[in-house]
Amino acid sequence: MLGGPEGTIWVQGVQTPETVEDQGGTFDFQDMGGPTWDVFDADGRFLGTVGMPDRFTPFFFAREPANVLYGIQRDELDVQYVARLVVGAGAQR
What would you report as the CA-atom Rg of the chain, rounded to the nearest whole angstrom? Predict the structure, then answer.
């Protein structure tokens, strides 16, 4: 779970070891979280689902602008990079 902008709550889906292996990866607990996140408002109402890149671990949302998310992106060799994502319709990294 992750606290988002305007009191939203972001809940990450999980993947089974079979799903990770079917995608060509080797399962470890870092890969247990899936790329889809369910977003709820401060009152618990479901707002929708957001997809994030595979092997991306979000850490926090920027205060300004509120649609920027920072995290760690791991490549195929598990090298970690700081990543900045813009969350929104048609957003780009």
Answer: 14
The pTM (predicted TM-score) of the whole model is: 0.73
Coil/strand/helix, residue 7: helix
Query: Can you read off the two tokens belonging to residue 17?
Result: 């070891």
Domain spans in the chain, listed from the N-terminal domain onward: 2-86
Residues 23-70: tens digit of each pLDDT: 666 656 656 678 889 999 999 999 999 988 888 889 999 878 778 999
Relative to beta strand 46-51, strand 80-86 is unpaired
Residue located via tokens 């994030």: 52
For residue 71, the surrounding DSSP H or E stretch is strand 68-74
Torsions phi, psi for 92 (to 5 deg): -120, 160
Beta-bridge partners for 69: 61, 85
Q: Which residue has the tokens 């689902």?
A: 49
For residue 76, give both structure tokens: 């195929």
pLDDT at site 18:
75
